[in-house]
Amino acid sequence: MVAITVNKDKIKLLQNYIDAILTNGDHERIKERKRLKNGQKPPPRWNPFKYNQQQIVIELGVEYMQILLSAKNDDEKIDLFFKVADKVQAQLNDVTTYDPNLVNDAFVILINNHPAAVAWGLKTPSLKRISPINLLPGQTLPLDGPESRIDWWREDPSLNESHQHSHSIFVPNGIADANFPNKNFTYTKDRQGEIFIWSHKQMLARYDAERVAVGLDPVVPLKNYYDPIPEGYLPNKYLRDYNEKTSLSDLQNKFDYRLPYSSIVKEDGALIDFAVTAINKAIDDGLFYNDPEKLGLTINPDRYDPDILEDNEWREKFGRLHASGHIMFANIVGNKQLKDALKSNAPEGVILNFSTSCKDPLFYRWHRFIDEIFNRCIEKSKVRIFTDAPNVFIKSSDIVLAFKDQLLKVNPEGEKDRWQKYGEKNFGKPNFPFTNELQTRMMPRNLKGPNNEIVQIEQLFPREFYYFFKVKNNTKKDLYDAKTGNIIKVPAEQHITLRVFIVPEILAHDRKQWIELDKFKYTLKGDEYAVISRACELSSVIRKPAQKVFDDTPDYDISNDYCSCGWPYHLLLPRGTREGMKFKLFVFISDWNVDKTPGSTTEGSLSTCGRKIENGKPAKYPDSRNLGYPFDRPYANNSLLSTFAKQQDLKSVNTSSTDFPRAESNDPEDYWLDNVAMRDVTIKWVDEF
């Protein structure tokens, strides 16, 4: 990590300047922003999926980094950051060369990824400050169609902001090296291709959990993309407020609608056809066997090699499937007359922007199609045999849940150690306030639109809860006994990783539908029967710290967030149903000594913060297992039970795809591996906690 030796007051001044640039706010160093005048030719509209524009972002990043490279110490570097910010201002005013959104993205990528900016705690403003109208809700078309039942989830502001932020960290086509800025040599984050696939797979699993809760089928992949697309989308009125007389500057932030049963431009489909054919052939040829990272980079071709010549060869061989799809679908517009009139300046669909694409139901159908290609490759892999599992024991009754407010009632002082001592003393006793039902509720939030208009939405929140896991350590090590001269077995310490997943019971037969809730390290003492307390707000998958309330004051941002890459806390749990929806909660314990990444200093939760820097470079992903482990390979015999059964018992087990042990019966658990447990849990959507 770069040492923080610069003056904190100067850092604060720089942060204020960054905020003003990205929010077009008032600042003494900022003059009135220039706008396109009649007769001036506008720059190409910013399209984050177009390769040539991604290259311009890289080139701007190289310019910024070359300025910073001349600093001899941290104090000089902070002064040069001001110089970079001045250059960004000049580029924003070069209205005929750059779309302002392109320049903003290049600047955001610099702030979010440069080692010095990360070390000094520099941040980019929230989306509600940069582009608040992007957060205001639109609607699925037709307005009264079945897809409208989950508009609330797709339109969630934090969901869309999380997606936008992740793409400024895991950047398509890579980021220039701060120590060797060159547009022809860039890098992507460790395992970025695999992270791309996994993060979208998890988004789909969460989306499907909400779909089945409201009576919809899991999302259907858009295989026949030449056919009319039933789902349409109508952006909010501010995003689609334009006409032939709208200024070119204002058109840069507008989007068009898509009517139900619209079709793609057939010529656009050729790029998709090429990529799908090439990738499927490579899968059949075994090129990606047991290599999700390489396959992920093919579907979303960031730099597999830092050499641009290698990258071009890779792209020419496999195309740009993911990006080409977004471009193709954004080209379907409802206002065709205006598009013809405005030509290349015409707004396109919201699926073309990272901060709005998750609003469109087509986004999920497209990503399901991509995920099915990935899954086709994985299904050719060998099933997991868990021979490296630690010698520990857990069963379904060793997983207990409790609401935080109930724990506060029985033991107010327990909050200091997160009820660890209380759990150790009272686990399994009648007075323990356990629950078999988790709860969620919808809470109102007021978003501010233009002219101080208030738009009220509802967002999902969980009732805060704790897990308590009871784990027996049976690990032994060899020890020389001086008295007898023999080698004896004695209890040994064991570092473990607890991996927690949840799935709607109706979807448990599909390994792709398991939602990761948490993943963290714990150390068991020799021969210990440990009780482990874990708060839901510490989940490895969420933004840190957990954002439990929203302050929509225009200039307010969370000041103490230390990892903004994660999933929104308030969407940690699926909503469930009014009656209570059945889920399976699954715990898999692996050996941390196998899981840990060589050379990594990361401790605690085994999940990544894309901004984390180690030794001046982006940190390695802190879990050596494939993302999604142990659900990263096909089920044995297409059965959950067979997959996690003790090998010697497999022949005597009924292995149908829907057959799995149930928590109310202990007998089937005899078939489980000792390091695996699963229990029933209900999630109920209520009005009040």
UniProtKB/TrEMBL annotation:
One Gene Ontology CC term in the entry: extracellular region
Alphabetized InterPro entries for the sequence: Di-copper_centre_dom_sf (IPR008922), Hemocyanin/hexamerin (IPR013788), Hemocyanin/hexamerin_mid_dom (IPR000896), Hemocyanin_C (IPR005203), Hemocyanin_C_sf (IPR037020), Ig_E-set (IPR014756), Tyrosinase_Cu-bd (IPR002227)
Compartments reported by the entry: Secreted
Disulfide bond in keyword set: yes
Tyrosinase copper-binding domain span: 360-371
Transmembrane segments: none
Keywords: Disulfide bond, Metal-binding, Secreted
GO molecular function list: metal ion binding; oxidoreductase activity
Main location: secreted
Alphabetized Gene3D superfamilies for the sequence: Di-copper center containing domain from catechol oxidase, Hemocyanin, C-terminal domain
Protein name: Tyrosinase copper-binding domain-containing protein
